[in-house]
Amino acid sequence: MTVIESIPATDLLDPTPCATPPSAYLRPDGEDRYTIGEVAQFTGLSAHTLRWYEQIGLLGQVERSHTGQRRFCNRDLDWLELVGKLRLTGMAVADMVRYAELVRQGESTFDERREILLATRRQVLARIAELHGTLAVLDYKIDYYGGSGR
Amino acid sequence: MTVIESIPATDLLDPTPCATPPSAYLRPDGEDRYTIGEVAQFTGLSAHTLRWYEQIGLLGQVERSHTGQRRFCNRDLDWLELVGKLRLTGMAVADMVRYAELVRQGESTFDERREILLATRRQVLARIAELHGTLAVLDYKIDYYGGSGR
DNA sequence: GGCTTGCCTAGAGTGCACTCGAAGGTCTTA
DNA sequence: TAAGACCTTCGAGTGCACTCTAGGCAAGCC
């Protein structure tokens, strides 16, 4: 919960459109075929939720095995990590789907994507300020109830 | 939204159990009898929501006029202001109801109330840290999309 | 061969926090 | 005294983000 991550310089050159900061992959690229159960464990999302994400377009078409089972790749994990971060900001699923669609449309949507992220950034800053405000109220009342304990 | 409030020293002695930081009251104490519509306008909550809050015990018995209409007082506004702050922390309504019950039970519940607020405080701090983490990711991606704009 | 485990689909259900509608009573202003 | 804004209760509806159910397939193990 108290995760403030730093971003290694090696990642700053990553050319993929859905680049996100570092992940500890389960397997190296080329051998990256994960079952839905593995991904569920790795991301903390349920298998149900992962299927639902794909269904609503938040995940794009996931590859399938010859028997029709999903086989997620490292890139999918990257994307899910970003989705997780966006979810933490309070962004609505529908908005994330919109963003995912823009990613799928390619480079021509860079500007729009940047705008979305900038707007999200502003909302996060506002939310942080709001939380500092509630913190002041909480501290005031905690003091009233006999203080300390912090 | 960017409200970081300061608490005037004059309020620090307030002896009421549901004391909250300053409100700009509509009317001075003694003449503080507001209709539900006025309170709705003042708090931004709908009249429906205010009735629902009372119904579930988040608001305690609101006074009534001789014809049975609700007449809110400044104290109710104070309480609603606190509820608004707690709601901003993401506290569940059921938990706020629990807190309200403790307030109604009187001084013997001071310790328990302080514990609740301390726990909430920890959650708010964790949430702020989490948001700083998402901010780092957003900045990373915004840079990738051509930066600036902040 | 039978059992278990894990996966598939489509669609229904859940919990939260409101939010609204219906049917009717009351208050205010003209 | 009449219009219309505002009030009441009760219960149903909404939107979100999952979460689960049912019914079935496929692979691995004893």
From TrEMBL, chains A, B:
Q: Give all residue intervals belonging to the HTH merR-type domain.
A: 33-102
> Where does the UniProt annotation place the signal sequence?
none
User: What Pfam families does its record include?
Assistant: MerR (PF00376)
Among InterPro entries, the record links this protein to: DNA-bd_dom_put_sf (IPR009061), MerR-type_HTH_dom (IPR000551), MerR_fam (IPR047057)
* Protein name in UniProt: MerR family transcriptional regulator
- Keywords recorded for this protein, A-Z: DNA-binding
Q: What PROSITE patterns does this protein's entry cite?
A: HTH_MERR_1 (PS00552), HTH_MERR_2 (PS50937)
Which GO molecular function terms does the record list?
DNA binding; DNA-binding transcription factor activity
Give yes or no: UniProt keyword Membrane.
no
Q: Carries keyword DNA-binding? A: yes
